[in-house]
Amino acid sequence: MATTDPLADFSTSPFTHAGATRAVYRKGSGPAVVVMHEAPGITPQVARFARYVAEAGFTVFMPVLFGTPGKPDSIPYALNQIARACVSREFAVLAENRASPITDWLRALARRAHEEIGGRGVGAVGMCLTGNFALTLALDPWVLAPVLSQPSLPFPLTRRKAAAIHASPETVKTLGRRAADEGLSVLGLRFQGDPICPQARFDTLGRALGGAFEAVVLPDKAANPAAPKPPHSVLSLHLIDRDGEPTKEALRRVLAFLAERLR
Q1: Domain extent for 51
Q2: N or C: which end of the chain has fewer CB within 10 A?
Q3: Is residue 1 part of a domain?
Q4: For residue 199, what is the domain's CATH number?
């Protein structure tokens, strides 16, 4: 049976912006990386990823956006938290050409992290519901390493939504300018057959960002066979944490990308 992760090796503190206060879990030292957890929350597998980031020489800032920190993943738990996000004003789960309002709070957190830690800039890793949030965080010049793991918004209920990237045209234009002028790159990860993060979404990102978008697409057979199907969570639930596995190599690519951009 899956057990709760007490997250005892993380420190916690509140962060408030525009009247909204959330707990932020923190670990490590070095350049700042904002880790935005997936649904249903900071599961043990998401915490494992955050620990890998910290062990690689970064300071992780991991805010609680929904769910119970440390609680194991399960289908009922995930469905409950996704339903909550669907009715929340902070998450615009069907928006095609704008980001969820919660990205304003996340941008403020990234700014605070950069002010405190300093260095070249900040990394931002989004997963699933938060996957495309890293695009909007990269509107700010201190965000230098945006990572989109299985970006799932807007929910791909139509062909148009399947190709949308949950970011405004102004955001896409700014990222294109930053790519041309500053060498900004965006890293994306997904499983080949993932219906929640379809290939059409990565095609849109490729057209919008050109060579500035690096796509890592893994075969479905590379996913952890003990996790639910179809494969979805590249860096957490469907990761096979063993050398030589494609998902472990994808994790290493994320850590290398952060190092290349932030050090």
Answers
A1: 11-262
A2: N
A3: no
A4: 3.40.50.1820
At how many degrees (to 10) do helices 246-262 and 44-55 cross?
50
Q: For the chain, how many structural domains are there in total?
A: 1
Give the H or E element holding residue 152: none
Predicted confidence at residue 55, as pLDDT, reads 98
Using only C-alpha atoms, the chain has a radius of gyration, in whole angstroms, of 17
Position 172 in a domain: yes
Instruction: Please state, as a whole number, how many other Cβ atoms lie within 10 Å of the Cβ of residue 144.
Output: 24
Average of per-residue pLDDT across 232-241: 98
Instruction: Report yes or no on 2 lying in a domain.
Output: no
What are 147-188's pLDDT values in tens digits? Answer: 999 999 999 999 999 999 999 999 999 999 999 999 999 999
4 part of a folded domain: no
Q: Is the pTM of this model over 0.90?
A: yes
Average pLDDT of the residues of the chain = 97
Q: What is the dihedral of CA 152, 153, 156, 158, to 10 degrees?
A: -170
**What value does the mean pLDDT take over residues 116-123?**
97
Closest to 200 in 3D by CA, of 210, 185, 190, 187: 190
Q: CB–CB of 25/69 below 8 Å?
A: yes
Residue 1 has pLDDT above 90, yes or no: no
User: Dihedral of the CA atoms 158, 162, 165, 167 (nearest 10)?
Assistant: 0
With a cut of 60, say whether residue 105 has pLDDT above it. Answer: yes
